[in-house]
Amino acid sequence: MDRLRLLLPLAWRNLWRNPRRTVITVIVVSVGLWSILFFSVLLNAWSQSSRDTTLKMMTGEVEIHAPGYLDDPTVAHRMAPPSGALAQILNSPAVKAYASRVRVSAIVQSEYKTLPITLTGVTPEKERALSVLPAQTEDGRYLSTAHDDGIVLGRNLVKRLKTRIGKRVVVMVQDTDGKLAERAFEVIGVFSASQQVENEFAFVGISGAQSLTGLDQDISEIVLDAANEKSLPALMNALKAAAPALDIQTWRTIAPLAYAVSTFFNEFVIMWLWVMFALMAIGIVNTQLMAVFERVREFGLLQALGMRPRLVLLEVALESALLIGLGVVAGAGLAVFTVRAFPNGLDLGFLARGAELVGAGRVLDLKVDPGEFFLYSAIVWALGVIAALWPAWRASRVSPVAAMGRA
User: Contact at 8 Å (CB) between 127 and 134?
Assistant: First the structure.
């Protein structure tokens, strides 16, 4: 410790013998770490946005269907409303919210055009606790009850149908007898979402959908959110035990693209960390080697005066640790400042439509994760010090006689 207290001030002063080299190295490290940390925040926000957009639109964390429904989503693959052990679990504290739906392929016809849709019969009060779509009704109103006679269409679908609030559209579906059933609905609301969701879904009261399709009280699916994401595996086991005959799957298998995006972004941060470290290591090793070659006579003189080679190595290593530490602090501070510059999130603007293709929303909510920031900063600092050990070892191998001969 006495030697460390002696060498530490000396190492600090040596950093500023060549201020330009020190500043350049600090900039290299800080920019590299800033890119790692900000990319981590950005990709985490993108991953969370993709997950939330998928789950809060229509998917939920868990979906329950009759066997075969996902392969052939028709009224032929229907199930009874929840009862018994399944109903007990759905109404337990382990489930944050759930909703039963009728969801079938259909055709919607206006005065001008006929388009394919997914007709979704819902219970409005339950949907409001599970989905963000009821709150995104930008014109007219959302459904009021399960017996509401109106229909809510997506903004882009309304444009394609050339219809509007107050007009009537005809919905045609195949009923349980295999016959074509049709019914006219008044357009009471227009919701906004991603273009795909706007074009695909049309919402009516679940009672109206059951009546139109001849399902009586039967339903197509149950969608739910767990009270705690960490308890999802246990909840899945309980659901499968309560309803072994039903097809119960999590959002990871229902929406594989959103899950793949989340997994890929996590891996990309690690790959970017190694890429940036490789670039930083080249700069660190080059600048430190140059500093060692310029100070050969100094290291030789120190050893001639009695400083052991391992202390020379320690001194140069301390210089590198302080130098890289300055860059790490500057880079972390710059990353925090950059994130704080977007208090209301990062609006993707003209990129929003492209982001929708992978399920992300228009605005990314950027958040600093202190644990992640500390971890990546510590990794960069440790790897940087390790990269600088070679120049330090070269300094410790300087021969006093050869160094004095260069005077």
Answer: yes
